[in-house]
Amino acid sequence: MKAALVTGAARRIGAEIARRLHAAGYNIVLHYHRSAVDAEALCHELNATRADSVRLLRADLLEIGKLSELVRQAAEFWDGLDVLVNNASGFYPTPFGMIAEAQWDDLLGSNLKAPFFLAQAASPFLRKRKGCIVNIGDIYAEHPLKDYSVYSLAKAGLVAMTRALAKELAPDIRVNGVAPGAILWPEHDVDIAKQAEILARIPMKRAGDVSDIARAVVFLVEDAPYVTGQMLSVDGGRSLIS
C-alpha cells in the first residue's frame, strides 16, 4: 500500500490534500502541530472510510533536529513512504522597517528550512519506492506581496528549492510544487472590500477552492511521471496580471 506524509494536514488546504490522496488509495500520515482536535476528527473521518489507513503525528517543524525522527516514524507505519507533501506554512505580515529576527526565523523556518530538511530526511525512503515530493508554494513567490516581504522571499526560496532538489534527486525522486492563488483568505484578513478588489482583477473573476489545489497535487503525484522541477500555478490566471 502506498503511503503519503502530509504536513499541516489538520485543516484548510492540507486537510483536503489528505482527503484526495486518501481517495486515490494512499495511506496517510497526518502531521499537525497545534490543531489536535481537527487532526483527530479528520483521522476518524478517513479511517471510517478505510480502516487503519490514517495515522497522526504531532511535531513542531521548527525543531529541525527532530524532523528525521518524524519522517522515520511516518515511514515505519506502512514500511515505507511514497509521497511527501510539504504543506505546513506560516503566513502573517511583516512591514519592512519593523521586522524582528524572530519573525524572519519563524517564516523562513516554516516555509523553507523545514521543507528542505524534511525532504532530506525523506529522500532515502522515497528513493526506494521511486516516490515524489510536492511543495505547496504561493504565487507571491513570483509577485511579492506588500508588507509580506519575509513570507514572499521564503516562498521564493521554496521555488528555488523545488528546482534544485529536482536535479539533486533525479531520476529516482520527482520534486514539484503547486502555487495557489486566491483559495482561502487568511484567517486574520477580514477586509471584504480588499478581497472583492483582488477577485475583480483575476481573469477567472472568482476565488478558487481547496479542491483545486488538492487535485493539482494528486495530478503531480499520480499522473505526471515525466514532470519534475515544476511549480504549477493554480490561481485563476492571477499570476498573469501585474
Q: How many DSSP E strands?
A: 7
- Gyration radius, rounded: 17 Å
Strand order of the largest sheet: 3-2-1-4-5-6-7
Number of helices: 7
Helical content stands at 40-55%
CATH homologous superfamily?
A: NAD(P)-binding Rossmann-like Domain
Mean of all residue-level pLDDT scores: 94
The CATH topology annotation reads as: Rossmann fold
How large a portion of the residues is in β-strands, by DSSP E?
5-15%
Structure, described:
The N and C termini lie far apart (45 Å). This protein is α/β, with parallel strands linked by helices and 242 residues long. Helix 1 links the parallel strand 1 (3-6) and strand 2. The model has no long low-confidence stretch (mean pLDDT 94). It has helices at residues 12-23, 36-49, 67-77, 101-128, 149-169, 192-201, 210-222, and strands at residues 3-6, 27-32, 54-58, 83-86, 132-136, 174-180, 231-234. Helix content is 45%, strand content 14%. It has a seven-stranded parallel β-sheet, sandwiched between helices.
Key structural traits:
alpha/beta; 242 residues; Rossmann fold; seven-stranded parallel sheet
Q: How would you sum up this structure in a few lines?
A:
With 242 residues, this protein is of the alpha/beta class. Helices cover 45% and strands 14% of the residues.
Topology:
Elements: E1 3-6, H1 12-23, E2 27-32, H2 36-49, E3 54-58, H3 67-77, E4 83-86, H4 101-128, E5 132-136, H5 149-169, E6 174-180, H6 192-201, H7 210-222, E7 231-234
Parallel strand pairs: 1-2, 1-4, 2-3, 4-5, 5-6, 6-7
Helix pairs in contact: 1-7, 3-4, 4-5
